[in-house]
Design brief:
single chain, 467 residues, mainly alpha, MgtE N-terminal fold, 22 helices, globular, transport, transmembrane, Magnesium transporter MgtE, CBS_dom, MgtE_transporter
Length: 467
Amino acid sequence: MSEPNRKSQESLQDRLEQVVLLLDRHQNRDPAEPGQQSRHLEELQRKLEELHPADIAYILESLPHDERLAVWQLVKSERDGEILLEVSDAVRETLIADMDNHEIIAAANTLDADELADLAPDLPRDVVRELMDTLDAQQRERLKSALSYDEDQVGAMMDFDMVTIRDDVTLEVVTRYLRRFEALPDHTDKLFVVDNEGLLKGVLPIKKLLVSSADELVADVMSDDPVFFSPLDAAGDAAQAFERYDLVSAPVVDSHGKLFGRLTIDEMVDYIREESEAEVLNAAGLREEEDIFASVWKSVRNRWAWLAINLCTALIASRVIGLFEASIEQLVALAALMPIVAGIGGNSGNQTITMIVRGIATGQVQAAHGRRLIRKETTVASINGLFWGVVLAGVAFLLYENAALSVVLLAAMLLNMLLASVMGVVIPLARLRLGGDPALGSSVLITAITDSGGFFIFLGLATIFLL
């Protein structure tokens, strides 16, 4: 099997296991075989040279701190910049901390301005200032421009490496012009047509260039109504447009229509992945992405805030139960059944809140949709509550042979699911209206409400109608 084919057959996990094995052999020195250590080291370095920067990034993220730094030291310095771009923010911090200023600047100098803009926020300020001095005037201005935008704006993600042409030349001239390049920029599926002042006039898809007559003018075959963006546009809106129109690249123009840069599909994929990961973390109440091998203290600091909130809500739920101690003492079955009411309500609420947060993320849900969504979700909850309430009531009757208890259980199930559906809509929309992240701590809050609410509703109804 040829080398390219062999590499394609290996999974990321296989490559990780190979690196771990070689690293372990290198670090576990055997005095009886001094030559073995250098052979393992050479084999490990050769393996790292074969890997794509993204694969090395995955391996670094999957190693504990000491092993990670050991592998990082074996990576060739000219690849440092690419790898730093690929690793997660949390792991990038540990790698940069292991580098001196000279190494950081050397790594950064291998990157383009748009890539530097991704890396710069994680670099020490004195390094950024020194790095600015090493750039030529064009790169420096491009970097300053990219850094002037918020990280969730198109301007912070755009690429300055693109091919521009005029509309008054033939396709044959364009083809000869392209042959002068050693390689086209990545993700070049179209050429950008501009006038003498740099104003965007249209785009020429590469596929049209290939199939059209060489004598035709660019103006006759180009698309004069391309999808384009402003540097101030939200990255989320751009990501949706890329998905909607199946874009690979798109021009970015300023307020005067002058071509400023371009967006590419790789940036959009990275953005969507990062947003998805952030949404999952926020739902669990984690403030930021966490290196799985981070120090204990750093992990504690990242998790403590919402754990404190969760503790407070748990205390409230316990006090709700405490209000009905006498009722539970008289009818012990209540203690066995009340977690079911709370648990089903929490699950229902999490289903609702997940759908609403997703709708907000895709732009389909706005704060103004609140009433309509509440009506819809309460109807769904009513149907589910009645159906599963009847099922649970039947099970309770078989267990305890108490018809009144079964009816109370059905009513509590229905009411708690209605509460969960309303709060599943209200919590994310309220956070959206207040300018917060709709996903932040959503699962924690909905669980707290359905637990306390479920206990109060079930035990309250039982106290009124059974005792």
